[in-house]
Amino acid sequence: QNMGNLTIMTGFLLMGFSNIWELQVLHAMLFLLIYLMALIGNLLIFTLISLDGHLHTPMYFFLKNLSFLDLCLISVTVPKSIVNSLSRSCYISYLGCVLQLFLVILFAGSEISLLTVMSYDRYVAICQPLYYETIMIKGYCVKMAVASWFSGGVVGAMYSASTFSLPFCGSKMIHQFFCDVPSLLRISCSENHIVVYVSIAIGLGLGIFCCISIIISYGHIFSMVLKIPAKEGRSKAFSTCLPHLIVFIVFIITGAMAYLKPSLDTDSVLDLLLSMFYTVVPPVLNPVIYSLRNKDMKSSLRKLITWKYSSEELMKKSFP
């Protein structure tokens, strides 16, 4: 396993959740369950919004993007981890590791940007309803979605290029269940990480900008909502906005903690848990929080089920 002082690294070993085979199988089953929940939830939202003409509005256009991003984000890390647990092989190729790091940052960064755009969309809808139609035109929404994806791509390219510009020698063991920057820095044999720190600082700057934008949007929304005389209207607006805010805060805080906390040489369960919070939890929670509690989505789902049911009945009548 040890490659001595050879600087050519052909691959890495990802950390398993346990050395005990039964626990590895349990972890694989748990991850599979989580993955299927995220897959079904996000695919359902994507399909409903695509099929239902009533849902072709800016808000649902962004939600459709969010569910696609979530699908991608969880698919980059979890299936590989399941396969590794069951095959008892923790190996990931050098290129596979580069690609995994790039995609995780691409999708996570794009998601932060998209959640910022979504908070702006809610701000316009609640605080400037008369101008909503003129501001949130289709072309503008598409541009904002493209900008979200682009910003994630730029940060992803920066992180992976700067991290893999470092030499790796000696240990191949990554203390994480996927390739991420902090755990790769720990096994680099270069003491000079300035390039990586610069790209992390740029990513952090983007994160702070998104946080401030979201706080401003929700600040306006909450002050507007408190002016609503009807208690029902107030609680409806709060029940829509508060979960968004909670998911975003968890996503940002755990991501920031994983990247900013001092690196320890001991394997810590905290590292694994923190990274799960920003790579695995949002794709599972987002469908429930953003969409499936939503009245329009529920009626759309009902329509889809009854349409399927009625078309099956028709088939039976036509071909008894």
List keywords for this structure.
320 residues; mainly alpha; 3 strands; 3% strand; transmembrane; sensory transduction; GPCR_Rhodpsn_7TM; Olfactory receptor; cell membrane
Q: CA-to-CA gap between the ends?
A: 65 Å
* CATH domain topology: Rhopdopsin 7-helix transmembrane proteins
Please report which band the strand proportion falls in: under 5%, 5-15%, 15-25%, 25-35%, 35-45% or over 45%.
Answer: under 5%
Poorly predicted parts? 1-7
As a whole number of angstroms, the C-alpha radius of gyration is: 22 Å
How many separate domains make up the residues?
1
Name of the CATH superfamily: Rhodopsin 7-helix transmembrane proteins
The SSE string, one letter per element, is EHHEHHHEHHHHHH
Number of strands: 3
Keywords: Cell membrane, G-protein coupled receptor, Membrane, Olfaction, Receptor, Sensory transduction, Transducer, Transmembrane, Transmembrane helix
Main location: membrane
Membrane topology: Multi-pass membrane protein
GO molecular function: G protein-coupled receptor activity; olfactory receptor activity
Can you put this structure into words, describing what you see?
With 320 residues, the protein is mainly alpha-helical. It contains 11 helices and 3 strands, in the order βααβαααβαααααα. It has helices at residues 21-51, 58-87, 94-127, 132-135, 138-163, 181-186, 194-226, 231-260, 269-279, 281-292, 295-318, and strands at residues 11-14, 91-93, 173-174. Helix 1 packs antiparallel against helix 2 and helix 8 (231-260) crosses helix 9 (269-279). It is globular.
